[in-house]
Recover the amino acids of this structure.
């Protein structure tokens, strides 16, 4: 059987990308190479120049097949460095631009194909110099700020308006950056044994993770102080992966800057808490976002609880804002907030504070637990009195008498007085959480009795 001239079927090959299953593309490419005189380099060049924005009905399948074909061929090409650079600028970025930002499934599948290629070719340094800066400039452009001077980790000015490649939608750019860090972390964990999980900056992957974490850390802190929409992007897209990375690499240096910049989990948490402190002083929406930030922090912390930290570099000690009086004050206020979502987040934060199993922390901050309890009781009583509308001090009301009787029947009165034992601050908070969750189902009228017999003991 004679070989087929390449010009006969290459265009048909590209058109078939709208219809064939993406999983079959590598085998199809191998058949084309085996049954024709076309070389790997020629086929690669043809595909790099053949990207077409097909109709919406076939766009998703075409994008996945086109990307799969290029990734498969690049693995066969020996001059991978030059080819990867061309692939990113002439194919991957244009593909990202035509993907609907709301089509997260297509975006995730396309990214997965490319990131596996980056991993197999070891092109982390190239991605760090091309795709990452492009996405960062796209985020800045979408916000209306072309210069990134406000971002400590990236002092290079950008001119997005004159960039030949244009820009990506801001949300797409953020998705690319966060998914890239997520994939690189998973790759790092996959190739490291339990004895080797130490950051020695010995590979381009280590350096890439460190630098991208630093950039996203500063980007998150920057966005948190902008508009409500920007804060939501920072809270939901950036913070979870940044905190996860910082939990693994608790302290490190950003290598690409001179002089070297130090960034650590402690440093980031301190700045994050400063953002929350500022937001707490503003309106209801800002305060709610501050609770979201803290909830995101404690969520990531609980996920990594008990996990070993693998950082070899230790720049400074852990920043722990859990002994901060303002945090406790805001938790107390949140527990009686009119917004049910804020109450739930405040309760979650309180539970997280108590579940942190560090004996040194508990002993060091037990006084803070105890001191924080009485203001919380006062705040709850004020809220209950305002709801009741009856502030008479002539004696117990019918409502209070009934509440006390109900509290006795539930055994509430006895919890803090078992054999004369005096509960410490942590234990009293645990009692409150139990009562708060239980009594909320019955109504706030019972919470007053709970405070009277439990927390004021």
């Amino acid at each position: 059987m004679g070989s087929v001239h390449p010009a006969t079927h290459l265009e048909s090959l590209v058109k078939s990308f709208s219809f064939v299953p993406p999983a079959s593309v590598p085998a199809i490419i191998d058949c084309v190479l085996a049954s024709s005189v076309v070389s790997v380099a020629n086929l690669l060049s043809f595909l790099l120049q053949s990207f077409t924005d097909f109709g919406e009905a076939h766009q998703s399948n075409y994008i996945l097949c086109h990307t799969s074909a290029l990734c498969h061929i690049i693995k066969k090409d020996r001059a991978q460095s030059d080819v990867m650079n061309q692939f990113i600028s002439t194919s991957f970025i244009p593909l990202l631009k035509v993907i609907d930002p709301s089509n997260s499934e297509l975006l995730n599948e396309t990214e997965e194909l490319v990131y596996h290629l980056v991993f197999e070719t070891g092109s982390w340094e190239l991605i760090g110099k091309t795709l990452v800066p492009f996405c960062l400039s796209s985020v800045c452009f979408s916000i209306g700020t072309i210069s990134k001077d406000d971002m400590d980790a990236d002092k290079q000015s950008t001119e997005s308006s004159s960039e030949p490649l244009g820009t990506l939608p801001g949300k797409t750019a953020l998705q690319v950056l966060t998914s890239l860090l997520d994939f690189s972390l998973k790759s790092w964990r996959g190739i490291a044994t339990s004895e080797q999980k130490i950051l020695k900056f010995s590979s381009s992957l280590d350096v890439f993770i460190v630098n991208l974490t630093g950039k996203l850390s500063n980007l998150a802190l920057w966005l948190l102080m902008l508009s409500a929409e920007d804060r939501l992007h920072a809270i939901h897209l950036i913070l979870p992966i940044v905190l996860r990375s910082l939990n693994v690499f608790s302290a490190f240096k950003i290598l690409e800057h001179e002089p070297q910049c130090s960034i650590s989990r402690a440093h980031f948490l301190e700045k994050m808490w400063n953002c929350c402190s500022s937001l707490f002083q503003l309106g209801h929406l800002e305060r709610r976002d501050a609770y979201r930030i803290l909830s995101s922090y404690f969520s990531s912390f609980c996920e990594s609880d008990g996990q070993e930290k693998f950082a070899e570099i230790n720049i400074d000690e852990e920043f722990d804002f859990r002994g901060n009086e303002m945090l406790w004050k805001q938790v107390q206020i949140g527990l009686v907030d009119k917004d049910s979502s804020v109450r739930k987040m405040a309760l979650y934060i309180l539970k997280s504070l108590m579940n942190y199993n560090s004996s040194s922390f508990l002993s060091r901050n037990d006084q803070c637990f105890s001191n924080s309890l009485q203001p919380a009781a006062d705040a709850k009583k004020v809220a209950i009195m305002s709801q009741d509308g009856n502030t008479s001090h002539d004696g117990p009301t019918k409502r209070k008498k009934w509440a006390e009787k109900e509290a006795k029947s539930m055994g509430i009165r006895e919890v803090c007085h078992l054999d004369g034992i005096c509960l410490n601050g942590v234990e009293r908070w645990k009692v409150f959480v139990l009562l708060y969750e239980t009594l909320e189902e019955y109504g706030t009228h019972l919470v007053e009795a709970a405070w009277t017999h439990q927390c004021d003991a």
The chain is about 65% helix and 0% strand. The longest strand covers residues 251-254. Residues 1-121 form one domain. The CA atoms of residues 141 and 161 lie 8 Å apart.
